[in-house]
Structures are given as C-alpha cells and as structure tokens.
C-alpha cells in the first residue's frame, strides 16, 4: 500500500482519496477507521458526583448486577449508559467486546493466559484481569495482528 500526502495551505477541508483495484475487507476497515470519531470523554458517577473519564485511560467496561462500570488502574466508576451504547461510542478504536458483559481496551493488554475452558484470561498493564469468551477469541487475535486499537481497525 502506498500513501501520498499533499499539504496545500489553500485547502479548506481535508479529503482522502483511495485508489484500489477492487473493494476488500481491508479497505472497508480503513474507511470505517477514517470515518470513526473517538469520543473525548465518558460521564461517570462516583459518590453522587459526575466525573469525566478519558476512554484511553480505561482498562475495560463491564456490566454487573444491572449496572455498568468503567475500570481503571485504581478506580471503578459507574456509568449511566447501557453497555451496548458504550460499545457503539467506542467502536472503531482501541476497544472491542470480550464477552457479553465486558468491553476491553486492546492498548492496555499486557499478556494472556489460556483457561482450561477455552477462554482467555487477559492481564492488563495495571494488574487488572478479565476473561475473553471463546466466541470473541478469534476476533481478538485478528485485531491484535492488525495492530490492536492504535493502528488497526
């Protein structure tokens, strides 16, 4: 793949042109990545106070007992959104579904351990850990091979 960038001070809006022989999954992922807008903040609640959270600082988001929590290295903050709404907001970035109740940050993964039931235990740099269901393991491997959340789709 060749990349050409042309800087023009008279250009009023950034535009991207893709030339290809045929439409591929790689092109679809590239277009989705270009069109995705990463949310700047999520709104959490802790001790009856509203807290702005930077998604890049989160290890994962999980649903437990009909509540949704954002988990960082030292904190666990309740979010007043549904898990699927957060998944839609974070789509196309560093986050992906790990299980029915967890969305994880690929950029914070440190290592894996294979569990006896076929699930993966993901260890984050912070020391937190969470499990990836068997049905999401193949997608996780593919996303990590393609560069995770930083550069991959």
TrEMBL record:
InterPro entries: LytR-like, LytTR_DNA-bd_dom. Residues 43-146 form the HTH LytTR-type domain. GO terms for molecular function: DNA binding; phosphorelay response regulator activity. It comes from the Bacteria. Gene3D superfamilies: LytTr DNA-binding domain. Signal peptide: none annotated. PANTHER family: TRANSCRIPTIONAL REGULATOR (PTHR37299:SF4), TRANSCRIPTIONAL REGULATOR-RELATED (PTHR37299). This is LytTR family transcriptional regulator.
């Amino acid at each position: 793949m060749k990349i050409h960038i042309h800087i023009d001070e008279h250009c009023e809006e950034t535009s991207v042109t893709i030339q290809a022989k045929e439409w591929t999954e790689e092109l679809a992922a590239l277009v989705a990545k270009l069109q995705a807008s990463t949310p700047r903040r999520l709104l959490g609640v802790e001790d009856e106070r509203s807290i702005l959270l930077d998604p890049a600082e989160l290890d994962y988001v999980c649903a437990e007992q009909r509540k949704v929590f954002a988990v960082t290295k030292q904190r666990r903050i309740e979010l007043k959104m549904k898990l699927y709404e957060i998944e839609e907001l974070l789509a196309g970035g560093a986050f992906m579904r790990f299980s029915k109740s967890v969305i994880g940050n690929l950029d914070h993964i440190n290592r894996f351990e294979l569990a006896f039931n076929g699930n993966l235990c993901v260890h984050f740099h912070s020391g937190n850990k969470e499990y990836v269901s068997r049905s999401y393991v193949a997608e996780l491997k593919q996303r990590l091979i393609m560069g995770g959340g930083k550069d991959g789709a």
